[in-house]
Each structure stands twice: as structure tokens, then as C-alpha cells.
Amino acid sequence: MNDLPVHVGIIMDGNGRWAKRRGLPRIEGHRKGAEVTEKIVIAASRLGIKYLSLYAFSTENWKRPKEEVEFLFHLMYEYVKSKLQLFLDNNVSFRAMGRLHQLPEYLQEGFKEIEEETRHCTGMTAVFAVNYGGRQEIIDAVNRALKAGEKEINEEVIRRYLYIPELPDLDLLIRTSGELRISNFLLWQSAYTELWFTKTLWPDFTEEEFLAAIEDYKRRERRFGGLK
């Protein structure tokens, strides 16, 4: 039996399909998904999860229509700006990770502002992965290590140069919408993560289903390649 997972990751998938099934524009699915994100952040914080990583925009998502990408960036900006008090009230610190320098300047500034405003919070850390890819993070870490003059590349060195070095390995990875893949998310951190899949589309994902995933995790036996 496991205790509560320290680090939970979520691939929030299915916004577009949710909207399409209702005859709505894809952006309405993203808008509804943002509402669910707020509820799950609060639920995870109150449950005692220490780190919650949310896959908000991958490096591959640039392939989507320009209008949808621009809407997503503005939605993220509005979200972080409007939820500052929610983070503070729940003692949640906010972090963003990915190739952030490639994002619009207003979004970079928004992320920096809320990171600074919540830096003192000691409860859960909510990590938003934006313009993020697991392979890209490892490549960037190796390049930063070489630039810093590291003579030998090993696991300890790579971890030191990841986007958020103090982010612990992933205990539980949740993916919604019925897809059975991890889509380049937290590849380094998920070497021994427990996987939990649901057919529920992200805009329909509930706190009850989140708690069900946590309970399922707690019943699993983790051996990390060894024996018990």
C-alpha cells in the first residue's frame, strides 16, 4: 500500500472533442477545461498533494490553428492573473516550465508575476507545463550542463539542469480522454510513475474521479525494479 503521492501529473486531454460533441467551437472546450483545472488544483491542495504538474501546452501544440493557439495563450494569461487570490488562499505556489522564452512576452511576464507573488506559499506547488516537451527538457538540460562546463554527464548532473531541478520524480500520471500514451510529458521524471487512464474528457473530469485515481494509486505496490 502506498501513501499519498507526492507528485501528481495530469495530461488534460479532450477539450476539443468535448466542444465538438456539443456543436461548440473548440475554444469553448478550452474555456470549460480551465474551470476544471481550478477545481482540481484546489482539490489536490486540500488533499495534501505537494506537487501537481499540469500539461497545458506542448511543443507540438504549435501545429494547431493560429487562432486557437492565440486563444490558449490569452486564456492562460487570464487564468493566472485572475486566480492569484485563489492560489494565495490555498497556500499554493505557482511555477511555469518549458521553453518559456518562445512564448508571447505578455504571457512570460504574467507567469513571472504570479510566481513572484506566490513564492512564499508553502503548501502545494502547481506547475504549468507550457511550450513543454520531455525530450526538449532533457536536451536543454544537457546543453546547459555543457555550457556550464560540466565534464561528465550523469543522472545527477542532468537533474541539476532540468527546468525545475527540485521537482521530484512523478508518482502518478493521470491522462483523460481515453488516449493511452504519455505524449512527451515529464519523460525524465516519469521513469517509474504509476499510470492512470480514464475515458472522461477533461471538461467532464471531476474531483470525485481525481480522488478515485489517488485511491487506486494508494492500493498499488511500487517496487522500482526490486522485490518486496
UniProtKB/TrEMBL annotation:
Gene3D superfamilies tied to this protein: Decaprenyl diphosphate synthase-like (3.40.1180.10)
Q: Does the keyword Metal-binding apply?
A: yes
Residues annotated as catalytic: D13, N61
The record lists Mg(2+) as bound by D13, E194
Instruction: Answer yes or no on keyword Zinc-finger.
Output: no
Q: What NCBIfam families is this protein classified in?
A: PRK14830.1, uppS
Its annotated function is as follows: Catalyzes the condensation of isopentenyl diphosphate (IPP) with allylic pyrophosphates generating different type of terpenoids.
Q: How does it assemble?
A: Homodimer.
User: Which HAMAP family does the record cross-reference, listed alphabetically?
Assistant: ISPT
Protein name stated in the entry: Isoprenyl transferase
Natural source organism? Phorcysia thermohydrogeniphila
* Organism taxonomic ancestry: Bacteria, Pseudomonadati, Aquificota, Aquificia, Desulfurobacteriales
